[in-house]
Amino acid sequence: MNQQEGYADEIVKGFIISSMVWGFVAVLLGVLISFQISFPELNIPPYLSYGRLRPIHTNAGVFGWGIGSFMAFFIYITQRLAKNRLWSPGLARVQLWLFNTVIALAAVTLILGMNRSKEYAELEWPVALLVVVLWVIFAVNIIMTIVKRREEQMYISLWYILATLVGVAILYLVNNAAIPVSLTKSYSAFAGANDANVQWWYGHNAVAMVLTTPPLAIFYYFLPKSTGVPIYSHRMGVIAFWSLIFMYLWTGAHHLLWAPVPDWVQTLAMGFSIMLIAPSWAAVFNGYFSMKGEWHQMQQNYLAKFLIFGITFYGIQTLQGPAQAVRTFSAFIHFTDWVPGHVHMGALGWVSLVLFAAIYYTIPRLYHTEIYSIPLADLHFWLAVTGQLIFSISMWIAGVQQATMLNATNPDGSLHYSFMETLIELYPYWYIRAGGGVIYFASLLVFIYNIAKTISAGKAQAVAQKA
Ligand code: HEM
Ligand code: HEM
């Protein structure tokens, strides 16, 4: 098949550009809410207050930037690994419109204060129903393309893609079960501790099925493509895949340690979280071992830098995650800024770096041109890594500082510091985080400029060829 003409790639362009727009919104809002924490007078109630903007930030980041790009690359990768055109390009076009409509509706409803108060499942039922339709369209299209594939072997990325499609569907349907009382209000079908348990079963598996399996699918595809080296061990990848999927499903209650959910549920979550180190690091080793004899590419090939730093941040995060799932450690860092430090090591380091690499790889090919500027891509890389590390490390230190203060007791056993006193000590760290955010935002502007110039050069060349 003629790759450029045979595959439904126009739609991939649409998803990449949409996800970049939502990524821009997410990072801009991230910087804004960082400043709102540092300078509370920047809160303008009700619409521009932290409480309204924070969920828009997380939805735009995880769903707009994350899932938007995953849709692009699942369509791109599946066609190539299945050696088959997308089952229905028409459905994919509907999906693109619906995707942008849903994210825009999410932003509007959240800013108006319509919120189910469940983290990562905030959207009220009419929007949630649209998400279900969106996901069904997406899943059917990809699964049918895989079913009708012309290549017998299922490359590792396809397993991760299938897990994402099935996993998200199950999680979303169960956790969104609700009883509507009006067009803008519903109540969860679960109550009390059960509700919390279901919510965090969903919540952490959103980490698994949105922030882990899709970037892994993309990493496993684009590392060999970008560097020309084969993946070190396909078998290790597949074994790690099945154990990762099996283990993740039990870990949700590590968000509820010391909460009134049964002790055995917490212990189970703790045990499986620790075991997760093995399949997570299998992917890290697979990446590192693939580069054996090719490490010079880290200097010469900017894509290798994005991908290998990305998987390294994944490695750090999947050591940190199991550690903070241990009861005693959780008691120390839960309710502190340590957790946003953990989150953004993954969101800005792991997920975003891998997505940047995939976009840098595909855009020039989709527009039949070269990347506009490799020095600018390098600048983007260093600014992004610097901003991300300033964010994560400042929050880890802030978390430890706050944890020690919260745990300090007087000789009579009473608390030495009030919660407010701990917050006042955090201001310097919040300023530093906001600074890191500004650097990351600058890196994003460089990235968008580079990609926009590449696209316009590709379009200009296409026009010149036709003339
Ligand atoms: C420079 C860019 C960014 C900045 C400055 C930023 C800033 C923030 C801030 C201040 C919070 C609230 C933390 C708190 O609860 O105290 C937050 C939460 C969050 N952000 Fe970002 N963010 C950025 C990019 C992103 C991106 C790109 C994603 C997703 C891919 C993301 C995902 C999240 C998530 C999931 C949370 C909730 C974390 C939690 O509940 O612990 N962020 N962000
Ligand atoms: C071995 C893998 C991992 C384990 C065992 C793990 C464990 C944990 C634990 C225990 C928490 C709760 C911290 C607390 O509130 O006390 C947490 C929070 C979180 N983790 Fe991880 N983590 C892992 C990997 C990842 C990865 C790869 C990401 C991707 C970005 C991620 C994203 C998040 C997010 C978004 C939260 C915040 C949830 C919230 O409170 O809103 N984690 N993780």
Please describe what this structure looks like.
The chain has 2 domains: 1-168, Cytochrome C Oxidase, Chain A; 207-467, Cytochrome c oxidase-like, subunit I domain (Cytochrome C Oxidase, Chain A). The chain is 76% helix and 2% strand. The chain is built from 17 helices and 2 strands. The chain has helices at residues 3-6, 10-38, 50-82, 89-111, 125-147, 156-175, 192-211, 213-227, 234-248, 263-275, 277-290, 297-300, 302-324, 327-333, 338-366, 374-407, 419-466; strands at residues 178-182, 185-188. It has a two-stranded antiparallel sheet. Strand 1 (178-182) and strand 2 form a beta hairpin. Helix 3 (50-82) packs across helix 8 (213-227), helix 11 runs antiparallel to helix 13 (302-324) and helix 15 (338-366) runs antiparallel to helix 16 (374-407). The site of one protoporphyrin IX containing FE (HEM) has 25 residues, from helix 2, helix 3, helix 15 and helix 17.
Percentage of residues assigned to helices = over 70%
User: Can you tell me the CATH architecture of the largest domain?
Assistant: Up-down Bundle
Q: Give the CATH level 1 class of the largest domain.
A: Mainly Alpha
Query: What is the CA-atom radius of gyration, in angstroms?
Result: 22 Å
What descriptive keywords fit this protein?
467 residues, mainly alpha, Cytochrome C Oxidase, Chain A, 2 domains, two-stranded antiparallel sheet, 17 helices, 2 strands, 76% helix, 2% strand, binds protoporphyrin IX containing FE
Care to give the gist of this entry?
Helices cover 76% and strands 2% of the residues. It has helices spanning 3-6, 10-38, 50-82, 89-111, 125-147, 156-175, 192-211, 213-227, 234-248, 263-275, 277-290, 297-300, 302-324, 327-333, 338-366, 374-407, 419-466, and strands at 178-182, 185-188. The two termini are 27 Å apart.
